[in-house]
Design brief:
The structure is a single chain. The protein is α+β, with helices and mostly antiparallel strands. The chain is 20% helix and 30% strand. Among the domains are: 92 residues, Beta Barrel (Lipocalin); 94 residues, Beta Barrel (Lipocalin), CATH 2.40.128. It has a nine-stranded antiparallel sheet, with no helix packed on it. Strands 1-2-3-4-5-6-7-8 form an eight-stranded antiparallel β-barrel. It has an eight-stranded antiparallel sheet with strand order 20-19-28-27-26-25-24-23, with helices on both faces.
């Protein structure tokens, strides 16, 4: 599954987020800094600033061709490694953009005092001054470059930038240079002696390695479902990422009724000899609804009633099941998850412990994946991870929670939530999904297990190299990514998100009776999510002057990618389902979903071709 805000590393038999949040949960348009008219290497460094109650960290690094790259941290919001774009230094005048939060900074750089004095504008101008930190770099601070060699597909250059702040805390960002994916934020960075480890929540990956005796290499293991060796070498300057994203010009906001013809034109090259060409076997189902009028159309091998895996969009269903059970007084939002597990599963911690709200907002502190995940069949990696393995992991790890736990996208956490809710209801997750959501909404094709008739409509899936892929069967992780559905069913689900007040009234004490209130509850924004906000697993991009506020989630399994969003204030929503896994240029469903968002909002739309 997936919640990635930007782009992804290759699929390695794992559930990708997000982007997540896939997931700085907005796609950066241009992440390569502009070349300075008057290069000044003294600009590079780490800076501290304060914006109202927020302590900010600014990190600027020299890149090729006298350019600069950078990231911004807001530690108190759990937002670290937010990419900076369009860094321009002309004389002592400096400006840069932070696309993920729609902010800009303009001011001056004083090389004598090493201060940046200027104005931050995120809708309202505010003074913001940065002062250079005085701290001896750690052993690993700097720019590192390595090559990742997946079992299939081309090798990928991976660039890592590490820096420490005035407190000695370590931060990093990762670039997948050959995919044009830059500024992917790290989380949980730990340097113990010469041992380094960190997670990459937006692509559900992690790295652990050891610094060499001479300090010039870090050798270790990259894990994204399966382990791969990865060795980094220290670099004098950052390399540029290729290829950059390109954008089609903005159109006036496109009506849902006209979207099919607009997409047919926008995707003409991709359908002819690009990522959707006949030889790729790609099938795309798109559903869009506006002011209550639904449209479903397809490209390639897909049919309107084709069934797809939706990956991590399943997490939003789990969030709604939680809201349903809260409205039905079956659970409480702040209830410890330990209370929903079999007695004796895990010991009560001495201090704060993980609650249901922590799991649905991705602030539980649990890692992306458990360390006892060792699939017997890499092509169907979750099939043998059942509740007994989940409970064994929890017994060892515990359920203690750091009160300051930041946003960390965790398949483990939402899988645990789904299992816990099924326990409380004394049923399976699949039956819980059916009874609480699918049945009251009339979602006849939204399920975990497919009937023989549905199997006949289950579209064949393919990996990034367009080879046949295996469908995934999720057991303990069903609530994190195990749902299958159609574009038509997903539109009914999204229409319910747009207008829960218009759902037919159900009999008292029925799931249908509590559903309108549960949907409203599931939209409540409860925590930060790396530059965005998060409700009950729905990620939320704030409203801008050009675009409405949007709830969204994406998904990915071994042979499928997906993207769903809805904009309540504009009264439209869309779903993209594709039978192809994540490839060298990232998730095609993510790109197409964001393309559709842009067309509906009247913004420039990312090009989809090669």
């Amino acid at each position: 599954m997936s919640a990635n805000p930007a782009r992804f590393l290759p699929r390695l038999a794992t559930l990708l987020p997000l982007a997540a949040l896939t997931c700085f949960l907005a796609a950066p348009a241009k992440m390569t800094a502009q070349t300075s008219a008057i290069p000044s290497p003294t600009l590079a460094g780490d800076y501290s600033g304060t914006l109202g109650p927020l302590a900010l960290k600014l990190h600027l690094a020299s890149a090729a061709n006298a350019a600069f790259t950078g990231t911004l941290d807001s530690p108190s919001q759990g937002a670290n490694g937010i990419p900076i774009a369009n860094i321009v230094l002309q004389g002592n005048s400096l400006s840069f953009e932070v696309p993920a939060v729609h902010g800009t900074w303009k001011g001056t750089f004083n090389p004598s005092t090493l201060r940046l004095t200027g104005t931050w504008n995120q809708g309202k101008p505010q003074p913001l001054e940065f002062t250079r930190d005085s701290l001896k770099p750690s052993l690993v601070d700097g720019i590192w470059l390595g090559t990742l060699k997946p079992p299939s597909g081309d090798s990928l250059r991976i660039q890592m930038t590490l820096h420490s702040d005035i407190t000695g805390s370590e931060f990093c960002t990762v670039d997948s240079l050959d995919q044009g994916a830059v500024g992917l934020a790290c989380a949980g960075v730990r340097l113990r002696g010469k041992d380094l480890r960190f997670d990459m929540p937006s692509v559900e990956a992690s790295f652990s390695g050891k610094l060499s005796a001479d300090g010039n290499t870090i050798s270790g293991t990259f894990i994204q479902g399966g382990p791969l060796p990865l060795t980094f070498a220290r670099q004098a300057a950052a390399a540029a990422a290729h290829p950059p994203l390109k954008f089609d010009p903005a159109l006036p906001p496109v009506a849902a009724a006209d979207l099919q013809s607009v997409l047919a034109r926008d995707l003409a090259g991709a359908l002819k000899d690009g990522v959707l060409a006949p030889e790729t076997h790609a099938g795309v189902a798109v559903g869009v609804i506006q002011h209550g009028n639904p449209y479903v159309f397809t490209f390639g091998t897909a049919k309107p009633d084709s069934i797809f895996e939706i990956g991590s969009i399943s997490k939003t269903f789990t969030g709604l099941i939680l809201a349903q059970m809260i409205e039905q007084n079956k659970v409480k939002l702040d209830e410890p998850v330990r209370d929903l597990l079999p007695p004796g599963t895990v010991a009560k911690p001495d201090g704060p412990e993980i609650t249901l709200v922590d799991l649905t907002t991705q602030h539980s502190g649990l890692p992306r994946m458990p360390d006892n995940f060792a699939p017997a069949d890499p092509t169907n990696p979750y099939r043998d991870y059942d509740s007994s393995r989940l409970y064994a992991y929890l017994a060892k790890h515990g359920v203690a929670r750091d009160p300051a736990a930041p946003f960390l996208y965790s398949n483990l956490g939402v899988g645990l939530l789904g299992q816990a809710l099924a326990n409380r209801a004394q049923t399976t997750y699949g039956d819980l999904l059916h009874n609480q959501i699918a049945l009251p909404l009339g979602l006849s094709d939204t399920t975990i297990a497919l009937s023989p008739e549905q199997l006949a409509r289950f579209i064949p899936c393919f990996d990034a190299a367009h080879r046949p892929a295996h469908a995934w069967d999720l057991v303990a992780f069903a609530g994190a990514g195990g749902i299958r559905s159609t574009a038509a069913d997903m539109l009914r689900y999204l229409q319910a998100q747009l207008h829960p007040d218009q759902l037919p009234a159900g009999p008292p004490a029925s799931a249908a009776a509590t559903l309108p209130a549960a949907i409203a509850l599931s939209h409540e924004l409860r925590a930060d999510a790396g530059g965005a906000r998060i409700a009950f697993n729905w990620l939320y991009d704030q409203k801008t002057s050009q675009a409405p506020g949007v709830y969204w989630h994406n998904g990915a399994t071994g042979g499928f990618t997906s993207y769903a969003f809805f904009a309540p204030s504009a009264d439209y929503a869309a779903i993209v389902l594709i039978n192809t896994g994540i490839g060298p240029t990232g998730s095609l469903a993510d790109l197409l979903g964001k393309h559709i968002r842009a067309r509906l909002a009247g913004e420039p739309a990312v090009q989809i071709y090669k």
